[in-house]
UniProtKB/TrEMBL annotation:
Needed cofactors: pyridoxal 5'-phosphate
Protein name: Threonine synthase
Sorted UniProt keywords: Amino-acid biosynthesis, Lyase, Pyridoxal phosphate, Threonine biosynthesis
The species this protein was found in: Wocania arenilitoris
Gene field: thrC
GO biological process, one term: threonine biosynthetic process
Enzyme class per UniProt: lyase
PANTHER family attached to this UniProt entry: THREONINE SYNTHASE FAMILY MEMBER, THREONINE SYNTHASE-LIKE 2
């Protein structure tokens, strides 16, 4: 599959090149040249397929011919070594749990898939690759874990100081080896802007091979479409009109769901559930796209003021506002509403949701008011113990710590504090 830049200036390129570059030279995000829908029979019989079979069939067109089928099968098998259960809360609402991987957030799949693709492309290459990542909480830990010890790859993670949870910080600052954490005095948007600037800095790119492991990289972004297939497989025999409410920040996950829809997955509608960082909610009302500095919330991984992937969403719906609105609704919720939702989910269904999942739940409830015949699945994007303080404060119950979380507790944080792009550049050139 070839990819084009959404800025339409840089030349089209192969999957391999798009993965290695991350961002196109004209600073545009890469997008596949074609999307070939899967046959109807694939969806009619999806319950007969395993997760790895579904993943293989759905990602194949995007990575071939550079990744041969036998290699792809291994990559997919290795990537998906945990489960993705749907839990039904009531007749209209279910949740898809995406936190059973090593760092307990939905980023594990994309990070592991991309690490294996890059490892494959890099196997006969002497040149080291530096993977730059901006994180508002979960991408950093997942990428650190996914790339730990990968030959020829150095990972540099930028995160906003004081704006990620304690567990998230441990996950991205304690691994050592080929992983370095840079603690930025600023917001996630500042981190993301620094990463994008680095890609355009020829003094850097002439000296080192830089790539990104954020969802701007197609190998990190596209595997997220598996989730929507896995949920559908578990629900389609019981429900029509399946709607997904996706807690959204950088909009990579929901945009991957839209790619699943383009492949033919019968998704009735998407709900982008936002915290107070609501640029897309406002856009759907006013048709004015006005990114602004992010504000801090209890669903911190969604504290994004300028979502990278919105441009891909516009491309999917052919830059047509009416088509976009037919497929996408967006609502924004405050921290107080989120906490109330966490308590409601716990009291009504004995289910412990994290703040991001709770925002997704609120999105379902709002959508269902006008669409009572839908079945709404909210994505539970991270395990509640990643946000232990707020979860225990709200539901007033101590939470047992899963082994993935226990394994980072008590480890020593190692980070380098930076305040500007120049300091990032100086670090990279050293
Ligand atoms: C727990 C959690 N929920 C939701 C999101 C938002 O996802 P996206 O950036 O793909 O919109 C993130 C961060 O990406 C996250 O870590
Ligand atoms: N919420 C993310 C922000 C980065 O998103 P990405 O999908 O573009 O990597 C995080 O947890 O870091």
């Amino acid at each position: 599959m070839n990819y084009y830049s959404l800025n339409k200036v840089a030349p089209n390129t192969s999957f391999k090149d798009a993965v290695i570059k991350g961002l196109a030279p004209d600073k545009g995000l890469y997008f596949p040249e074609k999307i070939k829908p899967l046959p109807k029979s694939f969806f009619n019989d999806i319950d007969k397929l395993s997760h790895t079979e579904i993943a293989f069939e759905t990602i194949k067109q995007f990575v071939s011919p550079e990744i041969p089928e036998d290699v792809l099968k291994n990559i997919v098998n290795d990537t998906l070594s945990f489960n993705f259960p749907v839990v039904k809360l009531n007749k209209n609402i279910s949740t898809l749990e995406l936190f059973h991987g090593p760092t307990m957030a939905f980023k594990d799949v994309g990070a592991r898939f991309m690490a294996r693709c890059l490892g494959y492309f890099n196997q006969n290459n002497d040149k080291e690759v530096t993977v730059l990542v901006a994180t508002s909480g979960d991408t950093g830990g997942a990428v650190a874990n996914g790339f730990l010890g990968v030959k020829g790859v150095n990972v540099v993670i930028l995160y906003p100081s004081g704006k990620v949870s304690d567990i998230q910080e441990k996950q991205l600052t304690t691994l050592g080896q080929n992983i370095t954490a840079l603690e930025v005095n600023g917001t996630f948007d500042d981190c993301q802007a620094m990463v994008k600037t680095a890609f355009l800095d020829e003094e850097l790119t002439n000296q080192m091979q830089l790539t990104s492991a954020n969802s701007i990289n197609v190998a990190r972004w596209l595997p997220q479409l598996f989730y929507f297939m896995f949920a559908y497989k578990q629900l389609y025999k019981q429900y029509n009109n399946i709607v997904f409410s996706v807690p959204s920040g950088n909009f990579g996950n929901i945009c991957a769901g839209m790619m699943a829809q383009q492949l033919g997955l019968p998704i009735k509608h998407f709900v982008a559930s936002n915290n107070a960082n609501n640029v897309v909610t406002r856009y759907l009302i006013s048709q004015l796209y006005e990114p602004k500095q992010s504000v801090q919330t209890i669903s911190n991984a969604m504290d994004v003021g300028a979502p990278s992937n919105f441009i891909r969403i516009e491309e999917i719906y052919k830059n047509n506002f009416e088509t976009l609105k037919e497929n996408l609704s967006s609502y924004s919720f405050s921290d107080d509403e989120t906490k109330k939702a966490m308590l409601e989910i716990y009291n009504s269904y004995s289910y412990v949701a994290d703040p991001h999942g709770a925002v997704g739940y609120l999105g379902c409830k709002t959508y269902l008011k006008d669409n009572p015949n839908a079945h709404c699945v909210f994505l539970e994007t991270a395990h509640p113990t990643k946000f232990l303080d707020v979860v225990e404060e709200v539901i007033k119950k101590e939470q047992p710590l899963p082994k993935q979380i226990q394994s980072v507790m008590g480890k020593e944080k190692k980070s380098i504090v930076i305040s500007s792009y120049d300091e990032l550049k100086e670090f990279l050139l050293k």
